[in-house]
Design a protein that fits this description.
The structure holds two protein chains of two kinds.
Chain A: H1 11-48, E1 50-51, E2 59-60, H2 64-71, H3 73-103, H4 111-119, H5 126-136, H6 143-150, H7 164-192, H8 196-204, H9 209-220, H10 222-237, H11 241-246, H12 258-267, H13 272-302
Antiparallel strand pairs in A: 1-2
Chain B: H1 2-8, H2 14-53, H3 57-60, H4 75-81, H5 87-118, H6 124-136, H7 143-152, H8 159-183, H9 187-195, H10 200-229, H11 232-237, H12 246-255, H13 263-283, H14 285-293
Helix pairs in contact in B: 2-13, 4-13, 5-8, 5-10, 6-8, 8-10, 9-10, 10-13, 10-14, 12-13
């Protein structure tokens, strides 16, 4: 920093006190993060090495919680289901968001209103949105079945949340509705940063709109796409609210996500040590995933 | 419709203008129509919920469901109003929680953002990285120990305790935004103030505040909406009916925990819980979108 004390007197003490003052300004945030994040993080590791019920004796367990994970069929099933969910919902969100961003880039009337309409569900909570959809999807009372019946697409009401495949499909669609606006805005801001000259030069050179998208737009908004991917993948791996409210993990525990299983262990069975071990595994997985994704996209940019 | 379209063609050649002109006018109309119907589809679930909340209790549970309320009624709002401890209690809890979260987030990120943007001190980058850590550590993974700590300190059922969790996870975004905002304030302004004998708090209060107000509104808006909507941590931390927030109480309706309430009342509850955030967003839309895109993604 370059403080300009025009008179030039007593610069040194002024510098030293400036360091102290700066430190004091950031101190509350630093202390807060240390107390609220670093402490529980260390405690997670500590708890994961113990048998830790809510009440009663806490015993040291060494690596036993972690070795138990290997034999925990439901955990692997949940992890696989979460992966299935992530692999299906991510392309849906990214694809829809990309098309929406192209659609609302501008060039016609009311485009701001359309953007707002697509974005509006983002400010609704996951709980409210899940409750809204669980009713729309209800086999007897739901509007989805009513419309599909009236259009003659189905002959009998479908119990959408009653089977794993249809539950996954309908939850995917409800999540796209709920979150796609966020990704749309991120991609849109990337697109708007592309200079108009490049696009025009390409179209004068005879590049059709599809070629302009694949050869100019996509490479130039790579960082926005990376951001959307990381947000979506991490968010999907942490999915809980909509499965807890919409399917309650059913049918036959087939839609229990990883976080849901941690929640069940820690707060239904009160096996908190085991829950902590599962949390650590998930945490490491997510860190690796985010770093890998960012690396991958960075590499593409240079190669 | 045609006006916006012609703008795109300003720098094109004359021949391109003629051929493109004809083609794009029709595609623009098609795009507009498509965008319009898509917007209706996006708004449909909200409108549908709103319509149903005004049906009678029986009308909302009728099979098959009717597209339009046959009889308009406030019966569902009456039912949700007196559900459990009463809707007023739950709304108040949500509001208190959100206000606490907004207050804590604004204070911490304003002080921290100013410190990180304006001062050089040893370990500045390390400390800034430390403050961004909550972004990398998803809170779902540390809730078990937080719950244990909160139980030991006997703050596990308090809105204040829960707001501390929310502030923690609002902090990285808010601090980042406030640091960028303070960096965009011309330094000369502050230097002049120092020469005039203004202290640092004085600078923060008088001069910079008016310039960084948009950033602060964004921070507060995000803190409010995220706190108002949060479900998972609230589900774990709040276990007495007196401290339930709106999302939690609505989920208990769905689970039928506190007695039978029908779907119409639930939709009324959903509407009550989404209207404040939608209104805030519609009024402060510019701040929200700028917060999302500001500095985060620059190609």
């Amino acid at each position: 920093m370059n403080e300009k004390t025009s008179a030039g007197r007593s610069v040194a003490p002024w510098r030293a006190s400036r360091k102290l003052i700066g430190f004091l300004f950031v101190l509350p945030s630093v202390v807060f993060v240390l107390v609220m994040l670093v402490t529980p993080l260390c405690l997670t590791i500590w708890m994961s090495l113990h048998k830790w019920p809510l009440f009663g004796e806490i015993e040291f367990a060494g690596w036993r919680n972690y070795s138990k994970v290997l034999a925990d069929v439901q955990f692997w099933k949940s992890l696989w289901f979460t992966t299935e969910y992530t692999l299906t919902v991510t392309p849906l969100i990214l694809g829809t968001a990309f098309c929406l961003a192209l659609l609302v880039k501008g060039g016609y009337r009311n485009v701001g209103l359309f953007r707002t309409a697509y974005f509006l569900p983002v400010v609704i909570g996951f709980a409210a949105s899940s409750l809204l959809w669980v009713w729309m999807l209800n086999d007897q009372l739901g509007i989805v079945n009513r419309i599909l019946l009236d259009l003659g697409i189905i002959d009998a009401p479908v119990v959408w949340l009653g089977r794993k495949s249809t539950a996954l499909l309908s939850i995917n669609l409800s999540i796209v509705w709920k979150v796609v606006g966020l990704s749309m805005i991120i991609l849109l801001s990337g697109m708007q940063a592309i200079s108009r000259e490049i696009i025009e030069a390409a179209s004068i050179d005879g590049a059709g709109s599809l070629r302009r998208i694949t050869h100019i737009t996509v490479p130039m908004i790579r960082r926005s796409i990376a951001l959307v991917l990381v947000i979506t993948v991490v968010g999907s791996y942490l999915a809980f609210d909509h499965f807890y409210i919409m399917t309650r993990g059913g049918p036959q525990n087939e839609t229990i996500t990883a976080v849901y299983w941690i929640f069940t262990n820690s707060f239904t069975y009160f096996k908190m040590g085991y829950g902590a071990a599962l949390s650590m595994i998930l945490l490491v997985m997510l860190l690796v995933l985010s770093v890998a994704q960012i690396r991958l996209l960075e590499k593409n940019q240079h190669g | 419709m045609d006006d916006g379209d012609r703008l795109n063609l300003d720098s094109g050649g004359v021949t391109q203008m003629a051929t493109l002109g004809l083609r794009t006018i029709s595609t623009v109309k098609l795009r507009w129509l498509f965008a319009f119907f898509l917007a209706l589809a996006f708004l449909f679930p909200i409108v549908w919920s709103l319509l149903n909340s005004f049906k009678t209790s029986a009308g909302a549970s009728a099979v098959p469901t009717s597209y339009w309320p046959e009889e308009w009624s406030l019966e569902n709002y009456g039912a949700i109003w007196s559900y459990g401890r009463g809707l007023a209690v739950y709304t108040w809890n949500s509001l208190v929680l959100a206000v606490l979260t907004v207050f804590g987030t604004v204070v911490l990120s304003m002080l921290g953002g100013y410190g990180f943007a304006r001062f050089e001190f040893p370990g500045r980058n390390v400390l800034f990285f430390l403050c961004l850590l909550p972004m990398l550590v998803p809170y779902q993974t540390i809730l078990t120990p937080l719950f244990v700590i909160a139980t030991r300190l006997e703050i596990h059922n308090s809105l204040l305790g829960l707001s501390l969790v929310y502030i923690l996870f609002q902090l990285p975004f808010s601090l980042f935004l406030m640091r960028n905002t303070f960096e965009s304030v011309p330094k000369e302004l502050e230097e002049a103030a120092v020469m005039d004998g203004c202290g640092h708090i004085g600078i923060l209060r008088h001069i910079t505040f008016s310039i960084v107000k948009p950033g602060l509104i964004t921070v507060a808006l995000f803190a409010f909406i995220n706190s108002w909507n949060e479900f998972f941590a609230a589900l774990l931390f709040l276990n007495s009916e007196d401290s339930f927030t709106l999302p939690i109480v609505l989920a208990t309706i769905r689970a039928g925990q506190l007695g039978q309430v029908d779907w119409g009342a639930l939709q009324a509850g959903v509407i009550v819980s989404i209207v404040p955030c939608m209104l805030l967003f519609l009024i402060l839309q510019r701040h929200y979108i700028e917060g999302l895109t500001g500095g985060a993604v620059k190609e």
